[in-house]
Amino acid sequence: MKVRVDDLQEFKRKALQWASLFDVFCCLDSNDFHDQYSKFDFLLAVGVENELIVNNGAAFPALEEFRKQHSGWITGLLTYDLKNEIEDLSSSNIDGLQFPELYFFAPKHLILVKNEEVEIIAAETQQVIDEIALQKPGQANTEEEISLNTRFSHNEYVETVKKIKEHINRGDIYVTNFCQEFYAENAEISPLDIFIKLNSISPNPLSAFFKLKNKYVLSASPERFLAKREGKLISQPIKGTAKRYNNAVDDELSKQRLRGHPKEQQENVMIVDLVRNDLTKSAIQGTVRTEELFGIYSFAQVHQMISTVICEKRHDISDVEAIKNTFPMGSMTGAPKVSAMRLMEHYERSRRGVYSGAIGYFNPDGDFDFSVVIRTLLYNAAAKYLSFQVGSAITFHADAEQEYEECLLKAQAILEALGLHGSFPLP
């Protein structure tokens, strides 16, 4: 049912307030970024008609069967640790969040916004409209005191980067994504209020707010992992980050430096090659191509170097198989992929879990779209454990100090949303 809304932003706020009353919901918000691959501007899937929870093993076959049973909309998340199912790998690092390795659900209610037109798909549409209208979103309370810790001191991070570069010098890997966790224990926050603030500070095109009972994902992701549009697969890896400046001249200089920076281009092209290789497993022969190389895109916090790789999907490859064939995304692993993932399990000190995984949907048209879970705050309300991770690409030419600064730059919006901006670096 299509409904008329006078104030779309107010409707979205009230709809989120209403959704937060349910045990499970998924919100995907493009924040008015319009690209040729976006199917909608805002999606809100609320309540569970049916769900799939996989804690370890056989996640992709289970998702394949779940998708066959539900031809309508389903939304969900895949954690980075599914790599252990795909490859001969394991994860034994600290996990304070305890998300399931895979979770998908068929929603009871679905709200879609496209070109300011609102569509509600529900058994009792008028009841949903009335319940949303009754919501009274209050003033966001984001002043909770958070005591943030890190798994690496600055010096430990620098020394670890040096050790990783020794592997690169030996030829064990060419590039990797080295990640570090910032976390708080005994943390009490209002996830909805924090998400609203984060989404205001950093309104990115693949933002997501996911509630799974007492676990929350608050994501300001700018990166598309994999989408399917009318038989075409699209991946848009990000490698290359530069700071934004208030001064227009300085901002343009930062953008141009990123565009021509040899290290950033090297990182990007290595991951593009990896993504191209991953896509060949699902592609009609000869159709894999780089649609855009080294594209520079500007967001509220940073400039990013983004490339777009596409192919025509083989008819004998299912959508779930296509996702599995490219998972985890090359921008978060490195190359060679398996060697880089194995090394990072050794050098990182936290289990990535949802971070470096994917959030998205399958729709009734046979299309799907999944983001890369980066620039994301994760929260387990029952354990009162709050976490976010940031990473950067380590190559032969990487400077450890600059990579550490890049990590802090990527954390900037989350720190600001938590009221912690300016409290870094940690010792």
UniProtKB/TrEMBL annotation:
InterPro entries: ADC_synthase, Anth_synth_I-like, Anth_synth_I_N, Chorismate_C. It comes from the Bacteria. Residues 72-117 form the Anthranilate synthase component I N-terminal domain. Pfam families: Anth_synt_I_N (PF04715), Chorismate_bind (PF00425). SUPFAM superfamilies: ADC synthase. Residues 154-410 form the Chorismate-utilising enzyme C-terminal domain. One of its GO terms (biological process) is L-tryptophan biosynthetic process. Coiled coil: none annotated. PANTHER family: AMINOBENZOATE/ANTHRANILATE SYNTHASE, ANTHRANILATE SYNTHASE COMPONENT 1. This is Anthranilate synthase component I family protein. It comes from Mucilaginibacter ginsenosidivorans.
